[in-house]
Each structure stands twice: as structure tokens, then as C-alpha cells.
């Protein structure tokens, strides 16, 4: 996303920012500050000082890691803006790197990159023979900044990079975050905090008190949550999947089992019947059609229909019927998307599903009421599609019965509640002579379009001059047909900044780092999932007298629990003692790791030869949650060998291809070298774990 014509970045630090920058200089540190409190400015100043300590920009550089592609350009621009008034832009080049971009030139001083892209650079550079030193090796990096450092967990590439920094390295680590962990439970918060501190070898945890922030004009913590759902997550739809049966990895299986056993909600059963009928109608004309619903990947259902809808022709089908088939596939695509909404919400979100279908209704009205024929049968004749269309119309007819309005709206409780909240917040700002700047947070990208449609549809919201716009990452489309381009996202932010748009409907992308102007009303349409999201989203309301409305809570993630987790983190930061953390008994972690390795070691037996050694090793590493690194040292200009290094908290094991055997320094040669080293490492691990 573009930094998008933002006002010039401050050229001086606030008092708490100066204090923190001084404190973390030359130490491994994590800075914990709420969204909008200036973590990036602190990092930019630490970066400047780190480079200043080097003799010149060509000695050791700074790696600035960001978790998503949309933050690469933004954070690079922020560093450049900090360098500009100090005359450092030309002497200290700031480069951007992510997948799809050319390899950066060797003279960079600061590289802003995504972790996967940088890991690929490191691996590639390690395989190449050069008389010049490797600019991507840790010994050439003075400072590594982890933006949104809470991602250093599990199998995230952040953690893989963090664990690959040698303990003897002179690379300093600086982490930035609004919350140290996603955890809410007290014991889990402490355990997660201890782990990230240990793995990054942190010496300093820094934050600013509420008094410090307020004294310097920061208001992001002032908005106390208004809870509109006092009882955590009341199931407004009866008969949905019980909470005890909700296992995410079995989501798809659970849904279809309920369909087969006739225990699904009537809405879900009706939608599936309608889709099956539409599939049969299509299959009679297009004999190549195969229902994608057997796939466990719910996103692939609509992708299949979308691909079919763009086919030039269908074998054995006339041109006139091909045109009809194209339209039918478009309709099927929309119904697959609607079904996905139900599946991933455990059948709860039928109101979102129905509103989405209403948004797409123009595309399938033609099939119901048109005269076109497919396979000699008029489209929709005697079809459930007619009944389902009437059902959607019925559920979406005027909210006069539910809210006393005479305008077109929705009888659904959540949509009616959102309407009430938006009108109230607009009236509050109007009464103070201020303009509304609101943000509605939802969990997925498709919901941004559905709520945008609902708000534009409602006459009362239009009359109140509430002008919405969708915002999410341009790297990931909402559906095969719904996406936001980079230019559209930048234009939306520009219009929000100047007031032409006064309500953003957005996803987590607006919580985490994106340069969004300060808002004065935050609405959580969906339940807050974790402590990070709670702190980041609230921090977007940075104007004085802002509000933060929570429309729904999870039973295990209530606002009070999230606030308690935040308070506990602050206490941990204030009491942080690096000596105490390093002395913490890690026996529990070691016991868990030994258990994982013991359970996974039988899989190493499948490595019977060179052909399957790499696969067996990769599976073992995945199951044990350890780190595996590879190097391809040059033996001669044209040949290389391979060394693999396995590291966990209980063992460190390395293996190399035999010293008397070399391999051509090309792709195939390196693959062969890695197979040999992998087999050696498998044997070493087996011996080590006897």
C-alpha cells in the first residue's frame, strides 16, 4: 500500500520516543507501544544511529523486516522521510525487497523486506560463489528490526529468521509491537513472553506509561470499549454447530456430515439443495463439469466456477447455449461463495450470507425471470432458485418491523445494530462540530464488500451522509471477482484523509501497521480474536473523545479478558529482568520438545535412500517445530558441497556431504548435494536420539 500522500513525518521525536530510542540503542530490545504512538519513528532513529556508528554505509547494513508486502513500501518511505532532513537519503540508500522484485543492488544501507523474500535471498547468496562478501549474511547486518515482532512464533518465517541468527553474531535485534503475544490466558501470556524474549535474546523491554503518552498528545488508549453484546456470543441462529464440536481442521468435514445426517440449519440445507440443482442443470449441458465441493479448500469452489465462466466455449455446446452457460457459472460462483460463508462460520453467519446474495442478486435474477433456455429447458423453470430468491427477498425486506424505520434495510439483528451504532456515532460527531472518521473491523475480506453494500443500500445511512469504502490488502483478493488494486487502496486512504470517505470497512490489514489517518469511532462488527487485535484496533481511534464499540464477544475472548491480558503484559514489561528471564527453568519447554522429537523420529525411517531423504527430514522438522538451515560452501569456482544444520532447544546436529565428493554449482548439482547431506543428517539424528 502507498504511504499515500500522508502529511510529512515529524522531524523530531517526542519525549517518550527519545527516551526509548536512547534506552534500546546497542541492545537487543522490544518496544511495546500502542498503534500510532510512533514505534516506526523510534526504529528509524535507532537505524540512523546504528549506521552512524559504522565507518560508512558499506560496512554493515540494517535489515528492516515487515510481515506483509503491503508494508514494505510504507516502512521504507518512513525511513527515507526520517533520513531526508538529515541529508542521509543519498549516502544511505533504502531499498525495498519482496517477492517479484529484482534483487537489490549491493550498495544498500537499509533493506526493508518481507521475511520469506529475505530468506530466499540469503539462501541464494549462500549458494553463489563470489569473491565479494555476502551482503545478506548475518555478519554483514548490524541491526535487524522486526516490525510486528509478535509474529515470532510457531512456523512463521519471522521465527525461522530469528532462530537463524547465530548466538555469536554481532547483529542487534529491535522488535516493534503493540502487544507481545496473541495469548489471553495468564499462564500462556507469561509463557509466550518468556519464549520470545529468550529466542531473540532480549536485554531490554521498553514502553511508555499512559501518563507519558497523554502528556505528549497521544489519545489512542483513551477510548474505553462500549460493549453492545453483554452476553458473550449469543447464537442468534439456532441449530448451528455446537461450540464443543468446532475443530478448525475439521470444519469442512463437519459441515458435510451435518448435511448428510440432516442436522444442518434449514438455511444451510436449502442453500446446498439449490446449489446441487444448479450444478445438475449445468452438467446436463456441460459434460466436463465436475462439482468442486469435494475439495477441502473452500476457496477453490468459486475459483472453479469462475474459471469455467471465462471459458471461450464448451465442447459440444452451441454458441447460444455457451453464452447461457457462462451466466450460469457466474451464478454458481456466487452461490459457492455464499456457501463458503456458512461453512467457515459454523453455519452462524446466514445473515452475512443472505446479504451477500442480495448484493449479487442482479446476476441470478436474469436466470429466474429470463426467457433463455439451456438444454431445451427454460432457466429456473420449476427450480428451487425461484424459492430461494423469494427467501432472500423475505429476509431482507425493510427494517421497519425491527427498528422503526420506513426505509429499505435489514431485519437481521447485527445489521440493524450496526446501523444504529453508525447513526449514533455520526450524530455525536455532528453535535460537537466534528466530522466522522469511522472504521468498522471485520474478520474477512468478503465481509468488507457486503457491509459496504448494506450501508450504501440503506436510505437512513445515506441521508446521514455516511460514505463507506472497503479497504484490505491489494495482494489478496476477496473473491475471484472482488479485489482492491494498489491504486484503489491509496485513493481510498486519500479520500478518507480529506473526508470524502468517512467510514472504512476493513480487515486486520488496517490494524497492523498500515498508514491510516486517525479515526474517532472504531466498531468491531465481529468478535475480537486475540490480544494483539484488541490493542491494535483500539489504537486506530487516536482523536480526543474517540469511541470504541465492540458488537460481539467470544466466550473465551471477552473484552475484560483481553484488557486483563494487556495489563499483564504491561506488568511483565515493568518488572522485566533479563538475568531473571535467562535463569528461568526451561525444563517444561525441553520436555515438550523431547516429546515432539520422540513422536516424530519414526518418520525418519522412511529415508531409505537419497530419493526420499529430504522429504523425510522436512517432515521431521515440521513436526518437531525446530529450525533447519542449509549452506552450500564453494569447494572450487565450479563445485560446491552442502551442510545442513538442525537446531532445537534440546539438540544441535549438523551433517555435510562427504568432503571427498563435490557437486556442480548449478541447480541440479545443489539438489544432489542436499540429498546426500540430508541422508547423513537423518542418520546423525537417529544416532543422536537413541
Automatic annotation (TrEMBL):
Residues 417-584 form the Helicase C-terminal domain. One of its GO terms (molecular function) is ATP binding. Gene3D superfamilies: P-loop containing nucleotide triphosphate hydrolases. This is Uncharacterized protein. Residues 20-198 form the Helicase ATP-binding domain. PANTHER family: ANTIVIRAL INNATE IMMUNE RESPONSE RECEPTOR RIG-I, HELICASE WITH DEATH DOMAIN-RELATED. Transmembrane segments: none annotated. It holds the Pfam family Helicase_C. It comes from Cymbomonas tetramitiformis. GO terms for cellular component: cytoplasm. InterPro entries: Helicase/UvrB_N, Helicase_ATP-bd, Helicase_C-like, P-loop_NTPase, RLR_Helicase. PROSITE patterns: HELICASE_ATP_BIND_1, HELICASE_CTER.
